[in-house]
Amino acid sequence: QVYLEQSGGGSVRPGGSLRLSCKATGSTDSITLMKWVRQSPGKARELVSLIWRSGPTTMNHTNYGDSMKGRVTISQDIAKNTVDLQMRDLEIGDTAMYFCGAHANAVDYWGQGAQVTVSP
């Protein structure tokens, strides 16, 4: 079992920046990748970014979804079992609930979510 606790989020004006953090506890050695997704009302959940935690050739490899590519950076501290998402140049369309996820033993675990609101 993996447990994820998120922090960060909030409200910001267009063009602003926010940082989301996520800390994993429990069976963290089984985590192969961690990710951030977001969901807005009436829309499907979409990938923001992911980062690999395992594999001699995949460790720290990252992927970014098209919606925020170039405006977000994912990073991790494996020793602390944390993953951060730095977001910049935020747009009104980035308003959503953001979830931290961890993939371990073929199961996806999720954090509690953090609301990000971008408004003038």
Give an account of the 3D structure.
It is a single chain. The chain has no helices and eleven strands. The chain is mainly β and 120 residues long. It is globular and about 40 Å long. Strands 2, 4, 5, 6, 9, 10 and 11 form a seven-stranded mixed beta sheet that branches. Strands 1-3-8-7 form a four-stranded antiparallel beta sheet, with no helix packed on it. Helix content is 0%, strand content 57%. It starts with a strand and ends with a strand. The protein has strands at residues 2-8, 10-12, 18-26, 31-39, 46-52, 62-64, 72-77, 82-87, 96-104, 107-110, 114-118. The model has no long low-confidence stretch (mean pLDDT 94).
Could you outline the blueprint of secondary structure elements for this entry?
Layout: E1 2-8, E2 10-12, E3 18-26, E4 31-39, E5 46-52, E6 62-64, E7 72-77, E8 82-87, E9 96-104, E10 107-110, E11 114-118
